[in-house]
Amino acid sequence: MTIEVEPLTRHVGGRMTGIDARKPLTPEEVKAIDAGMDRYAVLVLPGQDITDAQQLAFTANFGPFQDGANSTERKQELRLDPAFADVSNLDKGGQKLARDDRRRMASLGNRLWHSDASFRVVPANYSILSGRIVVTRGGNTEFADMRAAYDALDSATKAEVEDLICEHSLIFSRAQLGFEAYKAEELSGMAPVRHRLVRTHPTSGRKSLFLSAHIGTIVGWPQPEAMAFIRDLTEHATQEAFVYSHRWTQHDLVMWDNRTTMHRVRRYDDLNTTRDLRRTTTKGDGPTAEQIEATTIAPSA
Ligand code: OGA
Ligand code: MN
Question: Is the pLDDT of residue 300 over 70?
Answer without folding.
Answer: no
